[in-house]
Amino acid sequence: MMIKPDQGIVYLVDDDTVVRDALAFLLGSRGLLVFSFDGGPAVLAHLASCPRPIRGVFLVDVRMEPMSGLVLHEELLAQVIRNPLLFLSGHGDIPMVVESLKKGAFDFLEKPYADNTLVDRIEQALSIERAMLLDDARQAEGHARLASLSDREREVMPRVAAGKLNKVIADELHIAVRTVEVHRARVFSKLGVRTAAELATWLSNFGGSDASAKIQR
Questions:
Q1: What does the DSSP 8-state code read for residue 51?
Q2: Gap between the Cα atoms of 77 and 79, Å rounded
């Protein structure tokens, strides 16, 4: 199945066939691509064969057998699938759902709900998901740039980010000042920064705690 790059994807999980089919029809009529599942085990089996990162959002009924929507959410988190998830819940489910919201679920809608309200919330969840995908791509690009650095460039990089002079860096690494200048220029070029301050900011965004900790003050 061909999926358009900008098409909203919804993983609909509900063990009530009538409700599931009605929701699939509603969402499909609004231009969304819907994958329907009759329970948690079915959607987890499907996701196991999907490439990462997973695209789409989840619309999940709370009360299902044998795996409740709350347990499904726990399983998704355990697999580091943090896509926005929207619960459909009855009044008595709200205390349990609130606990899942604290763990990262996007929101819940209490039954009965208006069709337009449901679609609006799904569109909001999709907007968040798109932003998450963009951030993931940005992080992947940053890590790829870091991986392109040579061992010597990795030694020079945190010292430059800390604002150390080329001569100081040269003395610390027992290399020529000119060599430091060359590696400094290559680091700037590969990471797409122009100054030591920009490099320090870049490392805080892409280098992770390990790289940031190496910035020597």
A1: P
A2: 5
Please give the backbone phi and psi of residue 107, each rounded to the nearest 5 degrees, phi first. -175, 180
Q: Which two tokens stand for residue 201?
A: 């900011």
Looking at the fold, whether 28 and 127 belong to one and the same domain comes out as yes
CA distance 166 to 179: 9
Instruction: Using 50 as the pLDDT threshold, list the residues of the chain that sit under it.
Output: 209, 212-213, 215-217
pLDDT of residue 185: 97
Alpha helix segments (H runs only) across the chain: 17-29, 40-47, 69-78, 94-102, 115-147, 151-161, 166-173, 177-191, 196-202, 208-213
Residue 2 inside a domain? The answer is no
Q: Which of 216, 214, 150 has its CA nearest to residue 182?
A: 150
Q: Mark which of 83, 110, 142 sits at the end of a domain.
A: 142
Q: Are residues 81 and 180 in the same domain?
A: no
Residue 176: its pLDDT value, please?
A: 96
List C-alpha distances in Å: 205 to 96, 142, 146, 172, 174.
35, 9, 12, 26, 30
Query: In terms of residue numbers, what domain contains 206?
Result: 149-213
Query: What is the spatial distance between Cα 83 and Cα 52, in angstroms, rounded to a whole number?
Result: 12
Same domain as 52, residue 29? yes
User: Which SS3 state, helix, strand or coil, does residue 72 take?
Assistant: helix
The Cα 114–Cα 121 span in angstroms is 11
